[in-house]
Write a structure and sequence with these properties.
Oligomer: single chain
Distance between the termini: 29 Å
CATH superfamily of the largest domain: MetI-like
CATH class of the largest domain: Mainly Alpha
Number of domains: 2
Shape: elongated
Helix content: over 70%
Length: 269
């Protein structure tokens, strides 16, 4: 109930804040410029919540239309972004979790790889974009590579930490029972480290979804990030607000899926 009241209060404040913009639209351009306002033909400078709601309903009714390179439905743009995130993210899972197990189980590999990790981890994912575009020469694959880079580190560090933190008594019992290294990793270490690994995966999916928007703004073509930038170039603030809302909802859904898996592992039913 508190959330609903806060939402209604936000909508009311938004409506009241933008209601006066209609008067700005009726001004002459010279008077509007003198007053520091932006005059438009029959539109307010900032759309109100009802304008955004009406435009959002149009997008919901036709999410997959395709009128050319710069005019695609919101569903198509989201589909491209989610596909890139999933490919890059799954590639990161395939690399980070096995490597994290190796680092967590082997003190030697931990010391050997730690300098490389400490150097590469702080680099912004978008800093890799020019190099990726130059070497891969494909904007979509370059965006996937950037997602891979930004998703690897949280999973790698959480996996190595979770594996290294498994109780020594459990590992010693497995060794006493002559359980092999591979079987020990799957039957003892993986179940114990699973909550920590899934926490890293949850952090990574949030970072990946955040980075894909910025990456698509740079490379263009398709995707929700490109949609935001293209609508800004078209001065369609209503569509920019809808895209921001959509990005937030999709990011929340991706996070909640992994949060559900984490709860299932931590508190199995």
């Amino acid at each position: 109930m508190v959330s609903i009241l806060l939402f209604c209060g936000f909508i009311a404040a938004w409506h009241l804040a933008t209601r006066g913009s209609g008067e700005v639209a009726k001004m002459s351009p010279e008077y509007a410029a003198l007053m520091g306002a932006t005059a438009t033909q029959g539109k307010s400078a900032m759309p109100g919540p009802f304008d955004v709601g009406a435009k959002l309903w149009e997008h919901i009714q036709r999410p997959f239309y395709d009128n050319g390179p710069n005019d695609k439905g919101l569903g198509i743009q989201l589909g491209y972004s989610i596909a890139r995130v999933m490919i890059g993210y799954l590639l990161a899972v395939a690399v980070a979790i096995p490597l994290g197990f190796l680092i967590g189980m082997s003190p030697l590999m931990n010391k050997a790889l730690d300098p490389f990790i400490q150097v590469l981890k702080p680099i912004s994912p978008l800093a890799w974009m020019p190099l990726a575009l130059y070497t891969i020469k494909d904007s979509s694959l370059s965006a996937i590579f950037v997602i891979f880079i930004c998703s690897v580190w949280p999973m790698l560090l959480n996996t190595s930490f979770g594996v290294a933190s498994v109780r020594k008594e459990w590992i010693n019992v497995a060794r006493t029972l002559e359980v092999g290294t591979v079987r020990r990793a799957f039957t003892v270490i993986l179940p114990a480290a699973a909550p920590t690994i899934l926490t890293g995966m949850r952090i990574s999916i949030g970072i990946a979804w955040l980075v894909i928007v910025a990456a698509e703004m740079l490379v263009g073509g398709t995707g929700i990030g490109y949609f935001v930038w293209n609508e800004w170039n078209n001065l369609s603030i209503t569509n920019v607000i809808i895209a921001i809302l959509t990005i937030g909802i999709v990011g929340m859904l991706l996070d909640q899926v992994l949060a559900r898996f984490t709860r299932m592992v931590t508190f199995p039913e």
